[in-house]
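As the next step, I selected for study a record pairing a protein sequence with its backbone structure tokens, which the following lines show:
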Amino acid sequence: MLIPQHCTLCPRKCGADRTRGKGVCGADGHLTAARAALHFWEEPCISGEKGSGTVFFTGCSLGCCYCQNYEISQNGLGRQIPAERLAEIFLEIQEKGAANLNLVTGTQWVPWIIHALDQAKAKGFCLPVVWNSSGYETVETLRLLEGYVDIWLSDVKYVSPALSGEYSRAPDYFEVCRKAVAEMLRQAPKPIFDEDGYLRRGVILRHLALPGSRKDSFAVLDYMASLPKGSFIPSLMSQYTPFYKAAEHKALSRRISTWEYRQVIDRAIDLGLTDGYMQEKSSAKEEYTPPFDLEGV
């Protein structure tokens, strides 16, 4: 395993020498994670009754001002572990009876993750692997994961460059995301479920409806509707809560209204995006953020 000395793993392509310091994502040459435990708050076909064996990694290349995981994505909370320990964690998650292995925001750690998966598979690891992502990914990095990832659980946050620039410092977000989604669909072109209803292979596209951004949510849904029917599972989320630096942006200082979210749901129904998931409005709760207490790492 080689530590990137001119890192281009994410779309920022900052070129950091991570043997000497950190990249834009906040990651250096020491693999860091904040939690590894069963997680029951993903989509039903991911968590189900067994729970999803979820590893939350430290750092993030996107940097949303409203990130609910800001303690680990922005503030660097986590424990440094070798790739060999990560492989052990994967096996421990399997032993706990998890439905799958769910890797949250792992882009900056792809070389370590691949190394750990190789080691774990050599010792009997066989769970489906979920890549839980912001959608801000390069095609090149996604191709490194081909054969390792079974389920792509990706956000589609914005279409508007103005919104993605203001809220996530990434005016190129949609152009990057749509290419990433195309690659995900190439690798997993149709959802496949097991006899218990768990997703074994496929793509889930999430959209978190933001307050004051109804028109952009409509544009995201229009994009989703343009994709081949039946090729992915749509998941519309109402759980936005003003975390981190959200209050610095007037529109984000409140939760989404019932009327706003109803408009988004109605648009999805009109577009035929009904073979998936739609959160209840009551889902906007802090409880959806797990405690980053270093459990399992």
